Amino acid sequence: MKINRNINVVLVILIFGASLFTACSKDDDDIIGVDTTNRIDKYKEMESLVESQPFSQLHGVSVGNAQDNDAKTGVTVFFFPEASMASAIVLGGGPASREVPLLDPQRNTQPLNALVFSGGSAYGLAASDGVANCLEEHGYGYNTGFGLVPIVCQSCIFDLSYGKSNVRPDREMGYKACQSAIASNSPLSGNVGAGTGATVGKPGGMALAPKSGIGYAAARLGQLEVGVAVVVNSLGDIFQDGIKIAGMTTADRKGFVSAEQAVLMNQYSDLIAGNTTIADAILSSKISDEEYLDNI
Q1: Hey, what domains does the chain have and what are their CATH numbers?
Q2: Who contacts 29 (Cβ-Cβ below 8 Å, separation ≥6)?
Q3: Per-residue confidence (pLDDT) for residue 104, from 0 to 100
Q4: Residue of 217, 77, 93 whose CA lies nearest to 153
């Protein structure tokens, strides 16, 4: 008998700890969050094949945020109601992360219930405790037979050099962001959630580093949907279509200088100010049971 039911397959690919010279973000310190829920990006080179869509329409994931706008740090939670298989690429010298070994295909990997991005450097990992508590309360997690253990992975950016370094994402903030992700879907761009403390163009120190944030994009190709979320906290400058749109500034902050040239010419100061870019790519596809069985 043919079964017509569709299965929603979601795969999450995580990129932790990369220091990048390319990305796109907001540079206004006063913007709390930009509602890009219904924004549609254009993919001119593949318009005949790829259909743009808002990230909020991506199946199998819901986004929630919480932040301290005074301390300039926050948390973003990607919640997977049906749980999702995931893998990770870890780059950079000091990635703060939680449960990443679970994403190794050689492990006894269980589907991911939530992915957490946050500020706070290693201190921010405390946010996942609140996320796990929230998921358990709502009945999500791996059933051990003795209780639910939510599978939660996390990566953090270094934002201690911006805002208040003694205030970091904690259990309460993580719980709040998870509650938001379960209750609604809010993929906001800019200075919100994990992007609250993000900055770019840091070779000249924080005095010359403009504000950045978190951003989203999504597209559809047939039954395949792909969404990308990036917290841009890079060492270098930000380009869009080859044009610099943010990055290391002049002393009066009225113009740009090259972050790349500053590094190459050893004209840099506090690189420890932090330069971590974290991202996830979410692939979602609906296939029939028949297609699924044919590919086992």
Answers
A1: 8-294 (3.60.70.12)
A2: 191, 211
A3: 80
A4: 77
